[in-house]
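One chain given next:
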Amino acid sequence: MNSLSEKKKIKYEQQFYPGTEKVSERRRKLMDPERRLVKLREIPDDDIVQLLGHRAPGSLYTSVHPPLDEIMEPYDPMRELVLPTPGAQAGDRIRYVQFTDSFWSPVIAPWLRARMYFNRFRGVDTVIYSGRQILEMRERDVEAATRMLIETEVFDPARTALKGLTVHGHALRLDSDGLMFDARRRYMYDKNLKEVVYIKDMSAKMLDDPIPVGRPLTDEELNTMDVTYRWNLTPYKSRTELLLIITRATNFRILGGFKPDLIKGL
C-alpha cells in the first residue's frame, strides 16, 4: 500500500533532449515552454497583420462558428479538461504562417520548429518540409504566435523568412548583404536603416509601406545560437548519448518490425 501511494507522488519531468554541450542546451531551451525566449525586437500589431496578409489591419476576425459560449452542446467532460484557445473560443477560421530557415547557421531549423510548436503552442497543426515549416491555428492565435516567432531569438531577419509560397532558397548561398535567397523578393536590406525590411507580405503581395523587422544577427551571435552540429563548432560525433538512443530506436524499429520476439531484453 505504501509503495502504491509513493508511486502516485512521483512527478513526471519531461525530457526534451539529451546532452550537455551547447547545441543540446540550445535545443532544450527552444523546446521547453517554461524557459523564456529572449526578445530582440518589437513589431507593431498592424505590421504583424500586414505581413501575414490574411485580413486588413483593424478589420474583424472572420468566424466559422459562433463563440463557444453561445453554442448549446451536450455535456462532454473533455471540455472541462481542455480549455479552448482564444481563437477557438471566439470561433475564428483557421489561418497559417510559414517560415523558411536558411541552411547556413540558422537560429532554428524546421524539424526543431515542430517540436517547439507542439511544446509552446496549443491548438496547432504543423508540417515539416525540407527547409520550411507551416503552422496552422485559429486566426487570432496564429497572429499571437507569429509575433513571438518574429520578435524573439528564433528569428534572424537575414536567415529566417516569412514565405507563404515560393519557399525555395534555404540551401542556396547568401547574397552580398547576407540575406537568404527569395525568388519573390519579399524583403531587402535597407542600408540606411541597417535593417531588413519587407516590401511584400508572406504571399508576395506588395505592401503599402515597407515593414522593418530588425537587423541581421552577427556571425558571433549566430555561433552562440546555432542549433546544428558542425565540425567547426560542436561535432556530431561527440553526441554519444544521442547516438545510443538513435541506435536503440533503430533496433526496435527493424527487429520489432521483422519479429517482435527479437526485441525482448533490449
